[in-house]
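Hey, I'm writing a tutorial for new members on how sequence and structure tokens pair up, and I'd like a real worked example in the thread rather than a made-up one. If someone can provide the structure for the chain below, I'll link this post from the tutorial.
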Amino acid sequence: MQTDNAAASGKGMLHYFKWAFIVTLIGLALGAALGWQMTGTMGGMLSVFFICAVLAVLEISLSFDNAIVNANKLKSMSPVWQHRFLTWGIVIAVFGMRVIFPLLIVVIAAGIGPWQALVLAASKPADYAAIMRDAHLPIAAFGGSFLMMVGLSFFFDHEKDVHWVQWIEATMQRYSGIRGIEVAVVLVTVLIFSRFLRPEDSQVFFRAAIWGLLTFLLVEVVGGLLDHSQQMLSGAAKGGLGAFLYLEVLDASFSFDGVIGAFALSQNLFVIAIGLGIGAMYVRSMTIMLVEQGTLTQYRYLEHGAFYAIIALSIIMFLQSLFHIPEVVTGLGGAALIGVSLWSSIRWNRRVGDSADSAG
């Protein structure tokens, strides 16, 4: 293990982001070609090229916390399942969430077939985007409740012994022994937000939020059963198929906001898929770097910042059921929380280093 860490620490930034850079070049070239095919003008080509670049930056800014949480889960998974998530998982993330998911929303909302939805996306992008925006309320409720459960489960943990914001986290740990406390917090939050909506919207919001909550609980149950079965059959390390499924649902919840928000920049499904797909590759690269470099152990509060950002994102998704919040606010807010946690970690490392020097 020490040899592996030493080898990982010797890898430069270019090594981790090599494939992300390659996908960026290919994606932007495809975006430019698509812009030329759509408009036949240099201005149209440059416009689509720029939109793809902005969408990639949007996805990266929204996904810092996603990479950290992925790395936190991956470090407890067996090497085989780590590899599977970073290969199959990225295919599901890029094509499943950035292409298939928006199509499925239109299929369900408009009551049409998958092929008709694809034709609608290609021939009538404005109608397609309108259906996506109309479906935002249940998506926000589902994603908000799922992500809030993810964030609260990190803090309501009786084994958690490192606290960043001491008075909040120590209190949450103290009450972590109360069964179902995270579920109660989410349900109360959902009830509060549903009271500010119109009756017909309130029912849709509440039903979708309950499904988000149930999805989290079902993934936890199914994941535990699958991982237990793997341990019984092969003695595999904790964190196999169950953890893989958990990470895929988590990535989907993170992607909701970016996919819906992308329609504010472009109504073309293929332009959105290119831009968000580029960003997803950087998330994968950041995840690998965090795992191999052991960054989460070097900076003790980094995970805390990511999970605070997740809870903040869940609240923002709930708030978006009431009014629009620009995606730049979401992205910068999460990045700021992670940045502050990184700064606090560096300060703590310096204090420990100074204390060790003094003792020496």
